[in-house]
Amino acid sequence: MSEADVDPEERLKRQRDDLRLLNQVMRHDIRNDLQLVGAYAELLDDHVDEEGKEYLDVIKRNTKSAVSLTTTVRDLAEVMLREDAEPSRVSLARTLSQQVEEVRSGYPEAVFTVEGSFPEAEVVGDEMLSSVFRNLLRNAVQHNDETPPKVTVSATVDEAEGVAEVRVADNGPGIPEDQRDEIFGKGEKGLDSPGAGIGLYLVRSLVEIYDGDVWVEDNEPKGAVFVVRLQLAE
């Protein structure tokens, strides 16, 4: 039987099974290998000279980035494998605080600042909302050219509008206005757009599922601010 003769429902089932398999390989085999590379790189600290340490730091940094990427791919696959999952309600303060602490511990070279306190509000979302914040926080560090990278996180609620806004500001190079759609894979080329990353594509995909919005503004004196607007849960 040719591929053209396969029932569309059967073809979709095969594609979903293939995606599950790829997700499993990414989550286990590739991730485990990368973590092993990272562990052995740490063991080399006392065995290299100054020049070697510079190269070793590159290995460590890129291994950490690749491990983070496996998490993002896992989350994206889970979104794609969902079958009509309906968002519910999630605590904004708890979810955001947890991700700030996790990313802060993963990037000790960066300075994370929380402005004020996070509002005790529930927003439309689900367990994947944590992935939105995690990817924005990582993005603010990984694409930052300053030493140290500085990230400021704040959140506000507008009861009249029925929305909450989370702002993740960095002191990096900023994003030119004509690239601000493309970085989320929103351009005609999708993920082939210049600068589009899978993490930001996942952010946009999830926020749209929650009937929210995400965009980029300029930070002062330099850098970018990623703004996520979420609906307050009724």
Automatic annotation (TrEMBL):
GO molecular function: protein histidine kinase activity
Alphabetic keyword roster: Kinase, Phosphoprotein, Transferase, Two-component regulatory system
Protein name: histidine kinase
Catalytic activity: ATP + protein L-histidine = ADP + protein N-phospho-L-histidine
SMART domains, alphabetized: HATPase_c, HisKA
Domain Histidine kinase as annotated: residue spans: 25-234
InterPro entries with a match to the protein in the record: HATPase_C_sf (IPR036890), HATPase_dom (IPR003594), His_kinase_dom (IPR005467), HisK_dim/P_dom (IPR003661), HisK_dim/P_sf (IPR036097), Sensor_HK_Regulatory (IPR050736), Sig_transdc_His_kin-like_C (IPR004358)
Origin species: Halorubrum rutilum
Pfam families per the UniProt record, alphabetical: HATPase_c, HisKA
E.C. code: 2.7.13.3
Entry's Gene Ontology BP terms: phosphorelay signal transduction system
Class of enzymatic activity (EC top level): transferase
Superkingdom of the source species: Archaea
